[in-house]
Amino acid sequence: MKSWQFDRRTYLKGAGVSLALPLLNGMSFAAGKSDPPGRMCCVYFPFGVAMPKEDSDKREWGWFPRGEGREYELTNPLQPLAPLREDLTILGGLSHPTGRKMGGHDTGDIFLTGASFKGTQYENSVSLDQYAALQIGQQTRFPSLVMSSDGGVGEPTRSTTLSFTRKGRPIPALASPRQIFNRLFGEDEATETQRRRLENSASILDLVLEHSRSLKQQLGKQDRVKLDDYLASVRQVEQQVEQSQRWLDIPKPEVDASTLALDSDPKAPKDYLRTMYDLIFLALQTDSTRMATYMLGQVAGATTIANAFPACIGLKGNWHGLAHSGASDKGAEDLGRFDQFLAENFACFLQRLKETPEGDGNMLDRTLVLYGSSNSRTHQNQNYPLVLAGGRKLGLSHGQFLRFGADTPLSNLFVTMLDRLNLRVDAFADSTGEISELLA
Q1: How far apart are CA 145 and CA 3, in angstroms?
Q2: Between 329-354 and 269-285, two packed helices, what is the crossing angle to 10 degrees?
Q3: Measured between alpha carbons, how far is 229 from 378 in angstroms, rounded to an integer?
Q4: Is the pTM of this model over 0.90?
């Protein structure tokens, strides 16, 4: 049995267990009765892409395609996406206006938020995935899956996570494949012990909230604002506790881990990348979550991931160094080959989603997948290289390369994605509307 195949009998244990049923290949969704859910996944890579001059002999190693619209031609770095052409759109020209004047390595933090950092004030806002998770995260065991190759949260402007709460606080990312697998599919501690811990946590939160109500009456205006901010965090924890309690008696999906390289790490990038993508796939297929983010690497040049990755395909130096030489002829080919390696792994992930039947289509049809960077060249925060894949059953039209002017903020793409998922959204960050060219 392959890692993505499941024993359906696993879910027939106890009352209410039908809530945990994943969206398996063999399950059908009768027309008009039950549609598979929409999902979203966002993948980020740092340092930009190869962009040689138009008259360069190495132009074919530039990341962006030739031409525009539906007649575009893929260059070498994105050739792995050719079989998926009708399931994706390549986008050029988009960026966050708030990030255009930021330092060249400062924009990873705002890739999914569009927040404005002013001076030394690094105050972020909610990320795209968490905005969505706030509305539909309670429908799955895990509201979201937050991953990165470096793990944790990093530091302001050098975050190692793409995901931020409604208050703009970083959400720690998981980096160990085994830890991620155990979180998603591993055995929980004894149910009664866990139940008591959750009940104790709920009782403590109740006491905190009760005490805060009487305390608030004794505080001045500024202190009340601080207390409200604190209570918002308490309520978020309270919601997490309640969600955990609801899933206590529902067994986790059982999957075969034998084909997963769970002990791989960034020092062995080929196995590591494949496994991280496999884990996202499994999380989505079992409906353990519907929101996932993966930061392939952060923008600080000295990270393990940045140093180890290029060597796996025989390139010298680190990722940061490759990016700096990406405008020269030799440098463009080297960076282009690395861009191609990343695209190969991304294409395998998309292909797996597409090859998995679901309802009247496949998993990719109802999964929005955003892939890209917050740099074009390594120190330029405009013209982000972006790919949006999937979502054909959600109302998206693909098979094109779209270019936009500086007056179209990246947040317009976010609004379009949220709307395709039928989520409430009037605006996101500095958005000015939807991107109509993507709508079927």
Answers
A1: 19
A2: 30
A3: 36
A4: no
* CATH numeric code, 38-185+262-438: 3.40.720.10
Mean pLDDT by 10 residues, the chain (440 residues): 39 31 40 76 95 90 96 98 98 96 89 90 94 94 94 91 94 94 77 54 54 61 64 58 63 89 88 96 96 91 65 86 79 94 98 96 98 93 97 98 97 98 96 97
Nearest to 43 by CA among 332, 270, 281: 281
**Residue 287: both structure tokens together:** 């409906």
Q: Is 11:337 a contact under the CB 8 Å cutoff?
A: no
What does DSSP assign to residue 95?
A: B
CA dihedral sign of residues 105, 166, 173, 393? negative
* Nearest C-alpha neighbor of 231 from the set 219, 247, 245, 248: 219
Extract long-range pairs of 207-212: CB within 8 Å, 24+ residues apart: 208/234, 209/234, 209/235, 209/238
The residue type of 169 is R
Strands (E), 274-395: 291-295, 357-358, 361-362, 367-372, 386-389
Rounded (10°) angle between helices 269-285 and 177-185: 10
The answer to whether the Cα torsion of 67, 377, 337, 158 is positive or negative is: negative
Residue 221, pLDDT score:
67
Predicted pLDDT of residue 339: 96
Report the alpha-carbon distance of residue 431 to residue 31 in Å, rounded. 35
